[in-house]
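Before the break, one more example. Copy the sequence into your notebook; we will annotate it together after we see the structure.
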Amino acid sequence: MPSLSEYYGRAKGNFGSMNPAEVAQLGEDWMVAGATSAGLGLMSVALGGMDKKIFGFSVPMDGVAAAVLGFAGLNMRGSTGHALKLASVAAAGSAGVRTFEKFFKAGFKMSGEFEDLGAMGISGMRHFRGHGDYPAFGPAAGFGAGAQDALVEAAKYL
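Here is what the structure looks like once it is written out:
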């Protein structure tokens, strides 16, 4: 079994073998992504939210910003084009996170009272323990037929 000093030596060797130019480029990319996030936050405050209704459709403004930045980045050469393309990716990530968050929230609300089941916590799972063969941690921690019955009961709430 390797010792702690061996793991330390491996980690130190890995840090020492990093290309300084790549490390500097990663730092610059993080700064561009951070500046894009700050710009999107400012845009959200100024517009009163990032989703706007256009012709009856909810359009994510950060998605529009991603498209504009990406198109501009493709038309420019050099480091400016690279920075704009990177900012486009950061803005698209923001739009994607918000869009999928709404999608998943809508999906959970349609399937039942998911929030109520999760809010019960471990102490609220007592009513599932009718057979007395479940461990103190609730039905998910058990094994065998008793735990399976409890999971079926929990699934009814979904």
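The first strand starts at residue 51 and ends at 54. The CA atoms of residues 18 and 152 lie 51 Å apart. Try to locate both features in your own notes.
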